Each structure stands twice: as C-alpha cells, then as structure tokens.
Amino acid sequence: MSEAPKTDHAYDGIEEYDNPLPGWWKWLFIASIVFCPFYWVYYHNGAKGRSIQDQYGVALAENTRLQFAEIGDLKLDGPTIARFMAKDSWVKVGESVFRANCVSCHGREGEGKVGPNLTDEAFKNITVLADIGKVINNGAGNGAMPKWSNRLHINEIVLVSAYVAKLRGQNVEGGRPEEGNKIAPWPEPVVEEESDEEGDAKS
Which domain does 30 fall in, by range? Predict the structure, then answer.
C-alpha cells in the first residue's frame, strides 16, 4: 500500500491522495494574474497603434505597399480593371479591401444592405466597367456612396473595382432586390505578357 498522504475527506469510500500543485506553478499562475491588468492597459487602452489589430494593420499596409511596388501606380480605367479581373491573386487583394471597407453597406458577399446589391445584373450609377472605379473614387448618390479617393490608394481602388466587377451575376441568396438598369456585359480582359503589363502599369 502507498504511504502517500491523503486528504481528510472521502466520498462513498473513495479516498483522494493529497497531491498539491508545485510551488512554481502556483507562482506562475499568480504572476499571470498580476501581469494581465498591465497587458490590458498597454495593448488595449493605451496609445494608438499598440493593439494587435493596429499592428496587424500596419503590417498589412506595408505588405500591400511591397506588392504595389511590383505593378506601379495603375490607371483607373476600364481596360486596367478588366485586366486585373483575370488575375486571381490581385482580385484577392481587392476582396480584402472590400471586406475591410465596404461590408457595412454592401454586405459581406456584396448582397447589399444599406447600399445596393452588387451581385445581380442591375446597376444604378454604372453603364460601363470604368464607372465602377469612378463611383468608388468620387462617390455617388449625393454622398450616399462616399468617395474613397482620400482614403484608398489608387491601386486599391482599381483592385476593389475588379473584385466588385467579378461579383456581377453571382446573385447571392438573400440579396436586395435589383435597383437601376441592366447594362451590357463587361468586356473580355486582354491577356498580356507579364513584362508588357508591368511596363504599362508603371507608365
């Protein structure tokens, strides 16, 4: 029989060994409790830029700047938007811009909330592909759609325009009813050689 000490209580004849936690574990637990308020004050109630979200935003912005260095400053026109619609990696950048700035009005999938549904075939302020960029850049509806030229890089506007254009025709379930007029299909993007594309983007 083991001679290990036991607690002074038993349940239905079942006894329990007295195995206290190690002292180092107890002190580590106490130290973590003492540390928590300081952590909260520094990262969540301190100076702007300290929070994990702020640091992530800075890192994301830096990564985006590095990516944009590959393509230079893009032109905000129909052919450029159409060209980047065919590039899935850049459309994903446009999607991240959309998710960060547009979901409160247009919904997470573009189905429409306060703003119109972007997944159907009807448009209120769009007649040609280039108009998507113009609306995002300059705003529309007497301020109902704010202008983003003072908040987004020109490349972000081009890429989010490409993402929005690709939402057309998906007809997400539960979306707002169609608003506006039906328009002609988007033009087919012209696939270019990588070197030519980079030269055009930087010119």
Answer: 6-44
